[in-house]
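thought: fold this chain, then report.
action: predict
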Amino acid sequence: MSTEKLPPTARYITPEGFHRISEEHQRIWTVTRPRVVAEVAAAAALGDRSDNAEYTYGKKKLRELDRRLRELSERMDSLTVIVPEPNPSGRAYFGAWVTLEQEDGEEKRYRLVGPDEFDVEAGRISVDGPLGRALLGKREGDVVQVRRPAGSFEVTVLEISWEAGK
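observation:
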């Protein structure tokens, strides 16, 4: 077993997050791009390309798709997939689901994920964000002070769990 450390710039992602990125890449490559290529070919067959809005728009759309494909490929190459496992100490780390009680008594549940998969509406917060950083290493019952540009607030950690992502 290697004792090599990961580079300090390693970007982590859960298997579910990597799957979402991979699916988007696959969908663009196998469905969207071939459709746009066919549309461009049909527009080119109409003749004069200088005054052909469909052709011009199609070429622009194709460049945007190719840029997105490159971006997704580079992103997938730079990510390290980490399968979250429960921490024996009961502390919150990458991949954990954390249920919080806010100052107003409202409960929220978030998963600690990497910056490439955060989506607050879906309950995924980045470990690089203010709340994610504040929760790292915390245990059930801890009161956490979260500092952010908009001002500080407190949350209480109610539960930490490790089930697979949604």
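thought: worth noting. Residues 19 and 66 are 20 Å apart (CA to CA).
final: tokens above.
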